[in-house]
Amino acid sequence: MLIIPVERQIDWRKPPLMTLAIILINLLVFFLYQSQDSELLENAVDQYLGADLAQLEAPVYLDYLERRIRLQQDDRTELAIAVANAIDDKDAEWLAYVILLDPGFYAMLVDEGMLFWQNDTYFKWKEVRSSIVENYIDQISARRLGLIPADIQLSDLVGYQFLHGGIGHLLGNMVFLFLLGFTVERALGKSKFLIAYLLCGVLSGLFFAAFDSQSLVPLVGASGSISGLMGMYVAIFGLQKIRFFYFLGVYFNYFSAPALAILPIWIGKEVYDYWLGEASRVAYMAHAGGLIAGAGMVWILGKSWLHIKEEFYEPDETEQDDEFRKSYSKALSLISQMEFTQAKSRFTALYKQYPDNLGMLEHLYHLEKLDHNDDSYHQHAQKLIEASLKKNVFSLMLDTYKDYLKRVESDSRLDVVYHNKVLYACLRHDSVKEAERAFENLRKHPDISSELLKEACQILIQEFRKRQQTMKINQYQRVMSQL
Q: CATH topology for 2-17+155-313?
């Protein structure tokens, strides 16, 4: 059963750069650094078979497995059966791959080999076998940087998080890393996200090693770190209801539940699979350890070093867009129902929430002009002209200006500065006739100063000189002489 939280949508205008960087590093490590592993293993198998070691070791390996199974130190019953069949079938190559990749068996032979073979046979075996291990097996990436519980190195606690056992293992982990990482990175910020991610991997590896401290089998993969992201995700959302995607066999669906509810379910599943599941060789305890580490870090350090960024709790733009569309649709429906007072109230609220949206202000202007004697109509006309000028939406500015003056006629309350701004805007957009009309409105304004009017007149004269329109030049020169 697979359960994934899918509450947040990705905003590609603010991509999760650190998550993408970690994914890229994992891919490069696998396809570049780990690409040599298959060649190293093939060379090791060739030398192993060339020295006829399979015939010597295979019976001892079968006895080793059966003895550990009887003592309940191992659960690889199916492997023991497969080894017995391979011995009967004389499948030396398959036996070579299996035996070479079992470091516990090799360590046992080094210590106890003389109990199975005579001294001269043992020393010849040791010389050849140690050469294969040192030159090939120990050079495989999992042996160099994997986390070996019986021999934990500080570098391995970080290195193992970027190694994977195969393409399926890699791709599965990268999908989970992406799904969880972009949300947690948004909550913590890039640098803290990276530190928390690596620390979850470290604690996950130590937790795993504590349950199998004598194991020589290396642990590899980002699963522990990703489980840590799951823990952080759950701790961030807490009791808030979020959506989860689940996959069971061939069936999948979504369900909503408090984020915190998934924590005991996930831990219980991992512990159950470890103790009772058939695939107990998978590092379930590393997963559980990462989950506990991630959740614990947020709960313990969430109010200090690992505090959640305030903007994370703000609805993302997609959510805002959905909310806006619903409110806008409702406001328009009120207009269609001729519920103008309610529509005005709705658009006023929308304009307060989205002050940069010219459309909301334009709707308010048209609603206000139903009663153009009201002060609010004059105020909204001025606001719309001013906002249109700031955003350089010339057509809306000019249409509003003309419509307003037509409706109010002699009762215009537009400040003198706006007539002047309209004049300049018209000249910038090559609308000379409209600029002249704005000049006439400027001349009629009761608060106009002679200096401002002279300046506007001079601008028109300069414009007509560019156009070589002599009559217009003379006309405005006469106006200048009368000021």
A: Rhomboid-like fold (1.20.1540)
